[in-house]
Design brief:
The strands form three sheets. The protein has a four-stranded antiparallel β-sheet with strand order 1-2-3-4, with no helix packed on it. A four-stranded antiparallel β-sheet has the order 7-8-9-10, with no helix packed on it. The chain is globular and about 30 Å long. Helix content is about 0%, strand content about 45%. The chain starts with 6 loop residues before the first strand and ends with a strand. With about 80 residues, it is an all-beta fold.
């Protein structure tokens, strides 16, 4: 895996992100990683992820220069908020 930043963890759930909307999620303390496509019906995240916040294994907020994206189901679905 490439060197990605920023990152955030909640228990064994670890998230890393980077340029062009790159986001990866591990549910086993970083042993195995899955890519996550961050998108809504309006389009896909292509901005650089500058901050990741987690509250638990399901709640994750991504901050980019153009706004924020929030998932409350472990990244399966995301909502874009342009107020971050």
């Amino acid at each position: 895996m490439r060197n990605y930043t920023p990152y955030s963890a909640a228990g064994p759930s670890v998230w890393v992100g980077g340029a062009n909307g790159a986001l990866f999620h591990s549910i086993d303390d970083g042993i195995e990683w899955q890519p996550v496509i961050v998108a809504t019906g309006d389009g896909r995240l292509t901005a650089t992820i500058t901050r990741i916040e987690t509250r638990d294994e399901n709640w994750v907020k991504l901050t980019t220069p153009s706004g924020a994206w929030l998932s409350t189901d472990g990244g399966a679905h995301c909502a874009a908020n342009r107020f971050a």
